[in-house]
Amino acid sequence: MSVTDAEALIAKQIARRSTIEAHKEAGPKYLRYNYYSPKRDRHTPSMAEWSETAPPLPYPPVSAINDAATQKTIRDYSHLFRIVTPINVPYLESISTTHPNQPWVRSLKRCLEE
Predict the structure, then answer these.
(1) 63/76 Cα distance (integer angstroms)
(2) Is-contact 31 46, C-beta < 8 A?
(3) Along the 114 residues of the chain, how does pLDDT read in single tens digits?
(4) Which of 5, 66, 79, 92 counts the highest number of beta carbons within 10 A?
(5) Is the dihedral of CA 47, 50, 56, 60 positive or negative?
């Protein structure tokens, strides 16, 4: 391998690493720990691993809930805010009884039900 080839390979690796980091930073928070690469340098926890130590999911800020403009928009355009989830919450609850982070499980259930 020539020096030029080696430099090109290093530049490609740096560009790839930059792309992965940019993807992690630009993507939604829920994907932060779920980027998969078969050649990754370090261990990135799976969602299951992350959930074992994750803090409970927060409530929306009271200021956002009580905001008059927000309430009017939701009331006047409720058809735009229909929430549909394919998650079977009772089943999720039944299979999560032995999960080591019950505060997180309860908060997830609350978010899905409210």
Answers:
(1) 19
(2) no
(3) 676 776 777 777 666 655 555 555 555 555 555 555 555 555 666 778 888 888 898 888 888 888 999 889 989 998 888 877 788 999 999 999 999 999 999 999 998 887
(4) 92
(5) negative
Place of tokens 């370090």: 42
93 Cα distance to chain centroid: 20
- Residue with the two structure tokens 């090109």: 8
CA distances from 74 to 23, 54, 60, 77, 111 (A): 32, 30, 15, 5, 18
What CA–CA distance (Å, rounded) separates 60 from 67?
A: 12
Looking up tokens 């130590």, which residue turns up? Answer: 53
